[in-house]
Amino acid sequence: MNRARFRDKAVLVTGGLGFIGSNLALRLLREGARVTVVDALVEGCGGNSYNLVEAVGAIRLIAADIGDSVAMAEALAGQQLIFNLAGEISHTNSVRFPERDLDLNARSHLRFLESCRRWAPQARIVYASSRQIYGTPQYLPVDERHPIQPSDFNGVHKFAAETYHRLFAAIHGLETVSLRLTNVYGPRQALHLPWQGFITTFVARALRGESLRVFGDGTQLRDMLYVDDAVEAFLRAALAPLPGRAHWLVCNVGGPRPLSLTEIARTIAGADVTHVPFPETSRLIDIGSYYADDRLLRSWTGWAPRVEFTEGIARTLAFYRDHAAIYLPQAADTADRLAARAHAVH
Ligand SMILES: NC(=O)c1ccc[n+]([C@@H]2O[C@H](COP(=O)([O-])OP(=O)(O)OC[C@H]3O[C@@H](n4cnc5c(N)ncnc54)[C@H](O)[C@@H]3O)[C@@H](O)[C@H]2O)c1
Questions:
Q1: Which residue's CA is minimally distant from atom 11 of ligand 1?
Q2: Which helix (H) or strand (E) element contains residue 82?
């Protein structure tokens, strides 16, 4: 891809203090873009100011909710590309606090798209959708025609937001691309949050020298995607001409190959892996095996995942070893605060 195409481009990254958003913002900065980040550092999500510490002064940071139309008027003015990654990724939190998930993953995006329509109608929007919308796969690999049958509220609300992006294209003429991401891993993920998925738990336990516990028999498949490959998918989806006269497109984004959870755990921790029964809350929303058919994205943009899991996890562990004091604090405080707040709201 021609890197010069981002030079001096005005780009907005929502959720840019989070895991994928910060990696994307830093990459865009290296590519010469003028980067604005919007992030509300929502409690319980993976945002962390330290994620952008190396870019202080070089990236414009707006601390606001994407649903705040006044703040978005300022954030969106003059933007040429919009990467919309704000959101809550926790499936278990979506079951415990479904209205919170509705606010973060759907309602705020509807408001945000209204602001985009008003203040940046020419900017293409690339939205971070999720494989979670498919629910339990009926066949593998999962392509974009697979039925949508989410198994938790996160999947419902992510699909609502994806649909908002499609409708703002169809009805209001915005250009939108939704990337249905598989499981992403790598540097700058919130290891201290116990509800962000199995990969953060595995990495955090390995770094603490604790054995890894795999729920069930460990045969479930996942196509783990290294964050640099995810970032590359966003960059290509932002620039590739849309096919025909389309204003919107939806593409899966998968990893290099499917691996079982046991293989994933053993790659991280060697033999120090045990199998335990599924906790009831996790079993009820477990989707079994998933891996993506992402030929549409590959043929549209020329993208392909480059980083194999062994290489990606080595880079990931090295990053967290170097930054352990930042990324490995205690989780209990955050868990208690989120639960207390949710009780106060509902
Ligand atoms: N990490 C994955 O494996 C994965 C997989 C599929 C889809 N996704 C999607 O990619 C996106 C980024 O995921 P991530 O892993 O970087 O998550 P993350 O939790 O690390 O980052 C999300 C960021 O969004 C911010 N945010 C949330 N709601 C906001 C709002 N209304 N206004 C402003 N800021 C808000 C949070 O403060 C946080 O910094 C999410 O939309 C997620 O659903 C991630």
A1: 85
A2: strand 81-84
101, 99, 81, 97: which is closest to 89 by C-alpha? 101
Question: Per-residue pLDDT tens for 222-254?
Answer: 999 999 999 999 999 999 999 988 999 999 999
Residue 4 belongs to a domain: no
CB 273 less than 6 A from any atom of ligand 1 = no
320, 191 Cβ separation under 8 angstroms: yes
Q: Which of 39, 70, 189 to mutate to test the pocket of ligand 1 (most atoms within 8 A of CB)?
A: 39
Query: Is residue 95 a contact partner of residue 285, using CB atoms and an 8 Å limit?
Result: yes
**Which residue is closest in CA terms to ligand 1's atom 39?**
47
Q: What is the pTM of this model?
A: 0.95
Residue 3 within a domain: no
Containing domain of residue 341, as a range? Answer: 9-345
Tally of CB atoms within 10 A around 211: 13
In the predicted model, residues of the chain with pLDDT beneath 50 are 331-346
Per-residue pLDDT tens digits for 151-192: 999 999 999 999 999 999 999 999 999 999 999 999 999 999
